[in-house]
Amino acid sequence: MREKLVFEISKKGRVGVSLPRCDVPEEEPERLIPERCLRKDLPLPELSEPEIIRHFTRLSQLNYAVDTGFYPLGSCTMKYNPRVNEEIASLPGLARLHPYQPEELCQGALRLMYELGEYLAQIGGMDAVTLQPAAGAHGELTGMLIIRAYFLSKGQKRHKVIIPDSAHGTNPASAALCGYQAVEVKSDKKGCVDIGELNKLVDDDVAAIMLTNPNTLGLFEGNILEIAAIVHRAGGLLYCDGANLNALLGVARPGDMGFDLLHFNLHKTFSTPHGGGGPGSGPLGVKKALAPFLPVPLVVKQGKRYLLNYNCLLSIGKVRSFYGNFGVLVKAYAYLLSLGSEGLRQVAENAVLNANYLMNRFKDHYHLPYDRICKHEFVLSGARQKKRGIRALDIAKRLIDYGFHPPTIYFPLIVNEALMIEPTETESRQTLDRFADALIKIAGEDVKTLKSAPHHTPVGRLDEAAAAREPNLRWKK
Amino acid sequence: MHYIPNTDGDRIEMLQAIGLASVDELFSDIPAQVRINAPLKLPSAFSELELLEHARQLGAENANIDDYVCFRGAGAYDHFIPSVVKQIVSRAEFYTSYTPYQAEISQGTLQAIYEYQTLICQLTGMEVSNASMYDGASALAEAVLMSCRVTGRDRLLLSQTLHPEYRQVVKAYLQGISVEAVEIPYASGLTDLDWLKKELNDRVAAVVVQHPNFFGLLEEVDEISQIAHRVGALFVVSVDPISLGILQPPGTYEADIAVGEGQVLGNEMCFGGPYLGFFATRERFVRNMPGRLVGATTDSEGRRGFVLTLQTREQHIRRVKATSNICSNESLNALAAAVYLTALGKEGLRKVALLCLRKAHYAWRETAKLNGFSPLFSGTFFKEFSVNCPTSPPKINQVLLRQKIIGGLELKGSYPEHENGLLVCVTEKRTKEQIDEFVESLRKIGEEQ
Ligand SMILES: Cc1ncc(COP(=O)(O)O)c(C=O)c1O
Fold first, then answer.
1. How confident is the model over A237-248, as pLDDT tens digits?
2. Considering B305, B340, B375, which residue would you say is the last residue of a domain?
3. Domains with residue ranges and CATH for chain A
């Protein structure tokens, strides 16, 4: 099934919506606005309502989604998105609010933000939280700016941020965006930060180390207390990329491990849907010493009233307009209340159990570069298959034929032909087994079948090189 | 826990399969000192019924714009959202999928983004658009950073008529790098062109204005564009996409980067987010753009398909040298914008813009007739205007609230020089009756002075 573009469906004279008649004097626009400011032509498409619904419905059917199947995309925590969250987020009393409406008329919204901040602080072991960042990477940027402001307030200008070679690309990019020099620290044979290397790199020019824990191999940084001691001794700070927090919910808290800052990914750990690439939300938690630098406004409680406090002299300012992705916050809040503290721990336990169960099934069929208990995800290597000329990409594409979304591939960079698999807690053992059966079967399939996969999708493998060589980024008549 | 399929029996069997005796052993790699032994201090679980009830109560403590009549804008606007938009973005095939990394099973999202990019180009008259940024303010900040990359210069001129929060965001994004942002003062509510001409030199990477500006006024964009280009600076403009239903698009006045807040294109105000920032520029800058891009290509059988492209600009490949750190953007909101622009189409968007224009002017004229109320500025405006009030705006808004009207934004907060200034917004949703009631309330307040 393929679908034309809206521009190809468009026919002159069709309209897609009925609008109210004008009930005030219908003055000619030229009388209200100088003619040179008015546009001559508006080249938008023209479709009727049934055509619009059919077009976008057909497009939706070309997508794979959590609701249609298993989505073990490592590092992305593609868990089930509870429906009650959607219903709550669309209540008029929560969705149809102007961000600048008076405080006395948004007490419910402010209370929700305040309480969510408190819950997240509690879960992460942090002292204060901003809900403003719109995604994980945005939380990282906010954190880097806060670290910078903190050192400036102490009269120090530090230049380096240490980042492991296994880190996600946003980590070095966020550090660089804030003017820091990103210094790479190597991983050791166990897949964790090499302490010897770290010792060599840490000095008083290091502002922070940015760690993901569990790291992107799905492994807990067992030396975390030592790492914290090394960095803190040199006056540096510890930043935690909380993308992998699902493994730790109710089990351990980054704040207790020595982390000074931590961002949460509500669109991963806290069940809010990813929307085909956003909206996300990346609240940032910090320890007390960094709280004065958080973006404004902060939601505070005075007696029974909730207020927006803009009066923070040392604040870094703002990283986006208004208060953050409120609609996403509502869903995460609803999720946390559905779980309660016992449910929270069950999430982590089952996510980790599912990952270990699944990993165990592959031991005889794929190279497992780090053979130890994993947390919420694990990374296989396609190295054995590569000897036969089969790439991780081929394996991923072939999984589509079996009805599964492929894992994350070629990340982390330190694993050859990486296949990064994260099952989450919302999958049943039966699903895990079916997936394992498929991936094991693929390991023995012939090269031709794999190279030509996927076989049943609306399009086959697309020519990405051509797309980049001669970019066609928009339809033209 | 009903979101978790595993039963106690499953767990026991699964542990046996991996040779462990208990779930706790799965966490034995975490140092004992940092393992939590007592439950966290969180509320105990709510049932679905209790949760819905609790949420409704929270919602009831907020004024929502179904119950209140909203004359407030200033960056978030109460525009009509057709049902088709809500229906499409509620399809789980769209909202429960991730970023379209696997093109063959993500053609729905990819094609929709390609359509979105095209629609943004059509609307703005620009050559290329990305797949979205977090919001209008961060899109502007990214535009400013891109200007510095493109020109290799380190000074920016930002008009004071830009949304105050946008200026704050731009400045935050610049904190870590040595780029200086200078504010251009305003005169009669518009960017001061004399000042601009004097201060502009070849160190300036970009001149940045909002059009219509924060006070609602149309800026002299043609002239500002020419002035900026004379010294080789880029012209960066933040526009209201609804206004482009009738106003000249940025492409016609040679803007180099056009950004803006896409909330108005089919997204609820939602207390400030999620929204989307759109970002459009010239083709020759495409490799300097931040964010994701979708391109059309073909498969081995020559069938058209869509892929994420020019990814060598992005963080997952380029890391420290990426054009931006952005990863997740606001894809579902961009989808809403695409459906909205398709539904409104050529005629509809023009109609909405005309309704805003006429209703705002009606409200403005009726207000200006009142004793004590006068326009703050004399310039041309679109859907927002600033008035000077005979008494303190907070007092006026208090009275209006009793009639379930959310009045204009008090300008004093960001512009102390306008002690009694009120920024009023009138969208196509306001009826003549509502406007008359609003004006009548103002009249009464004015007469009590
Ligand atoms: C480990 C890690 N860090 C950071 C990010 C970036 O998060 P976001 O897409 O929310 O900006 C991701 C997302 O894929 C990630 O997996």
1. 999 999 999 999
2. B340
3. 84-339 (3.40.640.10), 347-451 (3.90.1150.10)
